Amino acid sequence: MPWQAEEAPDPRLLAFNEPLAAELGLDAAALRTPEGLRLLVGTAVPDGARPVAQAYSGHQFGGYSPRLGDGRALLLGELVDDAGTVRDLHLKGSGRTPFARGGDGLAAVGPMLREYVVSEAMHALGIPTTRALAVVATGRAVRRETVLPGAVLARVASSHLRVGSFQYARATDDVDLLRRLADVAIARHHPAAADAANPYLALFEAVLAVQASLVARWMLVGFVHGVMNTDNMTISGETIDYGPCAFMEAYDPDTSFSSIDEGGRYRYGYQPLAAEWNLARLAEALLPLIDEDPDRAVALAVESLKTFRPRYDAALADGMRAKLGLPAGADDAVVADLVTDLLALLQAGHVDWTSFFRRLADAARGDAEPVRLLVLDLAGLDGWLERWRALSPDGAAMDRVNPVYIPRNHLVEEALDAATGGDLALLDELLDVLGSPFEERPDHERYAEPAPRDFGAAFRTFCGT
Asked: Exposure of 193 by Cβ count < 10 A (0-12 exposed, 13-18 middle, 19+ buried)?
């Protein structure tokens, strides 16, 4: 639906991604001018641009909402980056749209900077993600639990097509609309599907494959999305929507931070199951395209959906093998037993996920003391280390995949609180450290340390609406 952003009384740049701007062929200096800031908040768009608020449906925490859509967001348009790839330029917090559902359509500085920080950290970690181009303070107050300064996030994505987009098209009972949407998704994200005997089944299988890989990558770094609704699962396989997201510290499959996920539906260990459930909803939406015979369409979709778990398991196993520095020739069953026993050891000891794997590389090089300091059950750890070392782990290879730095929740909150109050120094330093997550810096030890115990017990994240 064509729409216009609300005016920003006093736009001021808080964070700007110059490397991404260059990748998109944008003039960074021009974007820093008053007219450039108006573009970044959506109030001044180039000639010929036609911003739209996108419609989509979605299952939110399992409950179906037939009409969600961009309640506080606008798709400004498409850009072609320096690799020739089409990218979306999208805004969050730009004002109410017809999909606002009673909300004010605005966003506060803190949540928009959270998305900037975490999405750029995910990018640096090598995880497919939407990217943050800029956060601009609007000069407008936003009412939440308290009155907060408002902001707009400019976000870049391969596209904003979601499982919910297909649910919306299917709900119209317009098969031609559904087919046109699927054809766009194939052309833009999964062109090989066009040559398949059944292109729409091939599209489903392609989305399933990229999502299996994506969620495995989340699990390997301890990322907890927090709101894995079907409108937050992309067709491209990029992570989208960094509202109540956070990173697990002490290993526990039941880790959940989201204030609105009261039942823990999207807790850390449930994320693969949530993804599989969402993909089943995509399959339902695509059924009329998969086959004219409803029974045959269901049978084909079910067979394809069954491949999600093996794909995910294989991606996770490969990733865990890499985190442990083990060679490709190591026996799969032996590695699987090592992983199972290690996870039990970490959970029982409340061991920090990120610190453990980074220090484990020292043990591969002959110095086990750094990792032993993290674990109370030394007898159990020493027995496990003996079995692991017998497989000749490669410490240097481990350093390339196990980050020193992740967006530690207490550090993110510290930086966002300061930025909300007008001090951007902590934010800038945090972004600098997270931009090189595998590169240890001797003078930045605090960025590698877990949160104080009293912080983690009470920490909750919020959507920001």
From this structure: buried
Q: Which tokens sit at 458?
A: 């009470």
Complete edge-to-edge strand list for the sheet that includes strand 73-80: 12-16, 131-143, 147-157, 86-92, 73-80
Task: List pLDDT tens digits, range 301-312.
Answer: 999 999 999 999
pTM to 2 decimals?
A: 0.95
Cβ atoms of 461 and 245 within 8 Å: the answer is: yes
Between the alpha carbon of residue 2 and those of residues 48, 55, 72, 75, 76, the distances in Å are 13, 11, 13, 9, 10
Strands 86-92 and 58-60, sheet pairing: unpaired
CA distance 148 to 144: 7
CA distance 291 to 300: 8
Task: Report angle CA 193, 176, 69 to the nearest 5 degrees.
Answer: 90
- Give 431's contacts (C-beta < 8 A, 6+ positions apart): 15, 116, 117, 120
d(CA 226, CA 245): 5
Task: Enumerate residues 6+ apart whose C-beta is below 8 A from 383.
Answer: none
Q: What is the pLDDT of residues 389-426, one digit of tens each?
A: 999 999 999 999 999 999 999 999 999 999 999 999 99
Distance CA 428, CA 445 (A): 17
What six digits make up the tokens of 302? 């079910």
Helix (H) or strand (E) holding 448: none
Active-site positions read 231
Q: Which residue has the tokens 């925490």?
A: 61
Q: Are 437 and 405 in contact (CB under 8 A)?
A: yes
**Around 401, how many Cα atoms within 13 Å sit in the side-chain half-sphere?**
18
